Amino acid sequence: LALYFHTGEREEKCIIEDIPGDTLVVGTYKVQRWDIHKHDFLESASGLGMFVTVTSPTGEVLLSKLYGPQGTFSFTSYLSGEHIICFQSNSTRFAVTAGSKLRIHLDIRVGEHFLDESAIQAKDKVDEVNVRLEHLIEQIHHVTREQDYEREREEKFRKMSEETNSNILWWAIVQTLILISVGIWQIKSLRDFFIAKKLV
């Protein structure tokens, strides 16, 4: 997931990421500050810190740390579900002047383990094959966890659909019985009315 979004200084912005359990998540970000004179975002936002908070689906805080104007954060998800990742600038300027617009470039990688190419080049061919093989095994484990998580979600949605269909069927049966009962009552009432008026 790679994106950018705008926010104000000291304003908190959050994104929701659906992540399988037991998965490593690595995020890289860069902050740019709006320049009123150039009418553009500056490449660096010096003197600006970014407070990153990650919350699990149960509300447990997995990460809460202050970083610089650009940085990398990582955490491991212990539960499957929607994780909330929040960013808030820690402006060093006074509250009156800290109203500048910021652009945050964000790249989130879920379940990826990056190869250290320099370490691979320093080793011989056998070690290189071993390292690459371990990396492939990690990727296979990640794909398996993703599939298990998707299977769990599909099963949950299927149960919900079946329950909804069952409720709709019972409601249709109840409506039909009510309509039949009202029809029989109306026929009986009309018949009694006609007999009372001696029309039949």
TrEMBL record:
Keywords: Coiled coil, Endoplasmic reticulum, Membrane, Signal, Transmembrane, Transmembrane helix
Pfam families recorded: EMP24_GP25L (PF01105)
Domain GOLD residue range list: 12-110
Membrane topology: Single-pass type I membrane protein
Major location category of this protein: endoplasmic reticulum
GO (cellular component) term, any one: endoplasmic reticulum membrane
Similarity-based family: Belongs to the EMP24/GP25L family.
PANTHER family, A to Z: TRANSMEMBRANE EMP24 DOMAIN-CONTAINING PROTEIN
Protein name (database record): TMD11 protein
Species this protein is from: Promerops cafer
Gene transcribed to yield this protein: Tmed11
